[in-house]
Amino acid sequence: MNQTKTSIMEKSENWLKVPLAMDSEAGQLPAPTSTQLSHLVADDVRSNPKFQGTAQKIIQNCGDNPALNRVIAEALNHIAKQNGDDWTVERALEEMDSRCSTGKTSKSKQISLMRYGFEMWPRSDLAMINCCWHSRQFFRNNGGVHYNVLITNWILEECFGLVDNFDKAYHQGHEVLMNLIEHDLLKTEKDNDNVVIMEELVRDIPDTQYNGFVWKPTLGLSGVYEDKKWLGLDSVGPADGMIRTSEEDWKDVSVLLVDGYHLCQEIIETYFTTLKNLQVLAIFRPRIKALPVSLTMLGKLHFLVLKDCDLLEKIDDLVNLKALTVLEISNANNFKHIPEDLFNCLSKLRSLNLSKTGIEKLPSSLSKLDELRSINLRGCHCLKALPILKRLVKLQLLDISGATSLERLGDKSINTLQDLQQLDLSQTQIVHVPFLKNMKQLSRLSYRDCKELIRLPNLRGLSGLQVLDVSGALKLKEIQDDTFSEDNNLKMLDLSRTAVSCLPCTIRNLSNLELLNLSEMSKLVELEDDIFNNMACLRHLNLSKSLVEKLPSLNGLVNIQELKLQECSKLQELPSLTTLKKLEVLDLSGCVSFKAFKEGESFIHMTHLQRLDLSETKIEILPDLSGLHNLSHLLLRNCVNLKKLPCISSFKLKELNVYGAENLRDWEAELPDSMNQLEILNLSETQLRSVPLNNYTNLRELSLRGCELQTTLQLDKLTNLEVLDLSRTLINSLQMQTITNLTNLRQLLLTDCSELQEIPTLEPLVKLEALHLKGTKVKKFPCQMAKVTRLMHLDLPASSDTLELNWTGIKSLPGELNWDLFGMPSELKNITNKPSMIVRNMNSFETMKAIPEIWNSCFNKFFISVCPLKTDEEDEEIYVHQDGTSFQDIYFHVMSYRHEYSPFLEIRRFKSFPAGLEDALMKVEYVSLVENGFIRSLSELGNANNLKGCWIWSCTKLESLMKKDKDNDNLTLLNNLEILWISNLPILKNVHSTGLQFESIRNLTQLYIDSCPQLETLFKSSHLSKSLEILHVKFCDRLKIICESKEECILEKLHSLNLVELPELTDIGLKFPSLRTANIRNCPKLGENFEKELGLEEPRVERDLICEQWDGSQINRNGEATSLRSF
Questions:
Q1: Residue 131: how many CB atoms within 10 A of its CB?
Q2: How many CB atoms lie within 10 A of CB 565?
Q3: What is the pLDDT of residues 960-969, one digit of tens each?
Q4: Whose CA is closest to 1051, among 1019, 1079, 1015, 1099?
Q5: Using CA atoms, how far apart are residues 413 and 467, in angstroms rounded to an integer?
Q6: Within 13 Å of residue 662, how many CA atoms lie on the same side as its CB?
Q7: Record keywords: Repeat included (predicted)?
Q8: DSSP letter assigned to residue 837
Q9: Are strands 979-983 and 949-953 parallel, antiparallel or unpaired?
Q10: DSSP label of 747
Q11: How far apart are CA 1009 and CA 1023, in angstroms?
Q12: What percent of the chain clears pLDDT 70, i.e. is strictly above it?
């Protein structure tokens, strides 16, 4: 396996220059198409009766703006494609028509329409939305920008999340860029196709989403560049798994974005020695505890970005990087101290991101950074105070959200920060907030979950404030009457979960308010009758879980779309709803005192109503619903006084739920035959005797639990059904025959179906996860257990001792099974070949533990593998190919696993420790850890003190077996360890652990190490197991010595030695007097006499076994052999 490797510091042959244009024939930007709205929308939008009138009104009021037209068309086409899931085309056109009538100027109307279009854009394309919002701010501070600068900024600002593949991220950025250009949101300059600018209208859209940006800036890079000095970012591209500038000579590279795992293959201390011209350096997931000396000598460095550096502890030598304008050290819990004078040396800093670090205080020298535009301290849980900030007059963003120990700011007033746009103190312990006076640029202010906050500052001078969030400020009891001025621009106000008992009188000044959240205000018991009269712009009102007994007049809320009153336990009636013509959501669920709407109240004017939820109310009679043609959700759960369902005419109904309406007997009219959008129908625990299934072929959930049905169920056409609950019905075996057609079924619930004696085979139901047969008379299980591989919950009949059930070939154990009634099947007791068993629900172990017969044998009878349940996709078969060919033997051969190793447990592909596995780990003696993201050391396994063998494969966060200090009390974990097999651990630095009394590993007899590129030394002499019999080491590129010792070390029992592809190995440092087999290949630095030194010339050594029987390959899912290094 002789392989060559090109250093990433050499000229790349893989450099990829991605052009801005994507026209494959001409090499030019795509030819422009018509931007008229009527040409951009889909046919089903254009054919809507309201379209032509609305389009004409848009042109009259807003002109024919290409960017505006494309945003509107994208939104309308999405709505039409989704079939009116959240909006209907007609509703959207009406809203656009309305917005054309508001605003004093054409520009303000354009902005209102553009903002509305963005709000309706599909949230599935978060990357494009994130990048668009970022660019909106970026182009406010910068003119035309080279497209490479923009893409790189998107990556650094995490618009795509924390990327792990730079090639993919760059190309994703390029694709988003082209989409923004195609939508006329970005444009290329006339004289330079590589420079883009943003449509002016987009830059002016306010950020008034309820939760603000879908994406929040991490660095605020929009304000850090000076005079369009892009620091080489305009010349970058993807190459060699990095993003960098394309200089032929490595020493001339000025921009480098690289992953820390990539750097694990290099000598990090000297890696940056030749990069003297580096100006921008970003390392994602660096595996370092301190900054390499060569990095701290980069005098020209302007950007230093270290993301997700969970090992970093010290940054003392940063003082040398005096040119820095951007510094990020994020997700570094072990980084707790900043040198007091650090910021004296970094006087040019414009952006500082220390989010999710372990720092407890910031040095006072921060107060002198008068060039700072952005400070991000989000998630700094240990931070207790801030220094004085009043000199940071250019600051635009201050985010301290999630600093849960922060009790105070250093300033009583921050009035000098006149450029501040966003201030976020959410989830801090702050009691008194600084004064905010005449800060006209401040648009977002958040004190969310500030549980110690007792008073708000006066907000009258904040004319630009649009979003105020004080939700969860539990001790806030009062808001001063003069808080809101008449010239305010506030659009969103959230006072939920506060102790405010009376709203300020100036709340009537909030004429621009669009969202008002007053939910869970336990002290608010009364609202003045005229409070909503001046809130014509209000679209969302939430009063849920309040103690208000009577609502004020709602007549002024002519644009209200959402009215939430959940669990208002004292609310008995509603005021007139006649003016709420745009209402889409009316939610009264949990209003247990509500009995009726006003006499004569009709919903006929609410043509836009989509969701009506009256669950758990005392309502007896529903108003006429026949005019609600857009109604998609009608929820009447536990309406125990309801006796009759009114006529429902909406063909768009997706959910009808009357569960628990126990007095409901009749339909006023049958549901329409053509209601083919119905997905959920729940008639459980009612007295309805007919089920109007008709042609509801789109039905996903059908629940008829407890219904006394008098009609025959026709299930054969319901092929989209995923949940079928027929519990406590009189359904018989004949009616169940068509169930085999329901191939999408996930849950089949037949509990207490006393007439059911037989059900057809379940083999076609490949997605079945839950099967309830308890209380039936079924005598024969409808298929082999091995055929229902996704079954998570199995509830068998109480007479299961006579149930005929075939366990042969079972591969997956149900997560929940009533073992207490069923016991251990004889087929499982007599198993001798130890088959593989997948467990996806940790409840299995808790259930089995209660039954000693099962608990004591399950790990010995099966090779048990626990893995998370995948959703919306087929399960991957771990041990069987699609053609049915087992490669379990190959898998076990690679692992050097034997069937006598038991009890055995494999843990595979978990991102966090699987709760519920603790007892199983205490039970087993052999554990395999495969592709787990939570493993950083073996102490994560808890009290697995019986461990004799451990296999660790592709656990990329594991750095050492046991860690100093943390694991001193848990060393008994390794007391009995005899077999250790590790492979593909990119950051593992040592097998031994410095500083630990590592006596417990001395019983080790077999050690297998494969593809651990950071290993340089295997053992210190004091940590060496004298019991070692087998030592196999392969593909460890930096391994220099097997045993580091000043004296001769002898392994008396070692009889098998395997050293393959160790290019840096210079010394073994051991003697093997009992060696019988040896295989040493491609270890060029061992020297000429290594055979003699190791005793390989002795007659006892079987030299013909130097060639391995197994070549280190593994079989991939397509049946092809690939290198073990890439497994």
A1: 28
A2: 24
A3: 877 654 444 4
A4: 1019
A5: 20
A6: 4
A7: yes
A8: E
A9: parallel
A10: E
A11: 17
A12: 82
